Amino acid sequence: MPAGVTWNRPDGGMFIWLTLPRHMDGAELLARSLQTERVAFVPGHAFHADGSGRNTIRLSFTLHDKPLIDEGMARLGRLLRAA
Fold first, then answer.
1. Cβ contacts of residue 39 below 8 Å, gap of 6+?
2. In a 3-state reduction of DSSP, which class is residue 29?
3. pLDDT tens figures, 39-69
4. Residues 54-65, buried b or exposed e (16+ Cβ, 10 A)?
5. pLDDT tens-digit profile of 7-36?
6. Residues in a beta bridge with 43
7. Of 82, 64, 81, 83, nearest to 1 (Cα)?
């Protein structure tokens, strides 16, 4: 991931949260991702009742094997570097 992107290390569950640099919007990023990199995720804004979280995204890691997750992360990294 490019500089300025952070993520949590879950002890369990199904999701990883990425926090993007403040100028990035998860919903806008999703639209670009679906068109260019074909990677889907949930913009984090939907999980913040106070209207914050526009620069966050939620990734699921439970339905795919490691090689597919690695490919998806490479694509997402490429998208974020270009943003």
1. 33, 72, 75, 76, 79
2. helix
3. 999 999 999 999 899 999 999 988 889 999 9
4. bbbbbbeeeeee
5. 999 888 899 999 999 999 999 999 999 999
6. 57
7. 81
| CA pair distance 41, 57, nearest whole angstrom | 7
Q: How far apart are the C-alpha atoms of 43 and 53, rounded to whole Å? A: 8
Q: What is the pTM of this model?
A: 0.86
User: Three-state SS for 63?
Assistant: coil
CA atoms of 28 and 43, how far apart (whole Å): 9
In terms of Cα–Cα distance, which of 56, 30, 53 is closest to 41?
A: 30
**Contacting residues for 67 by C-beta, under 8 A, at least 6 apart:** none
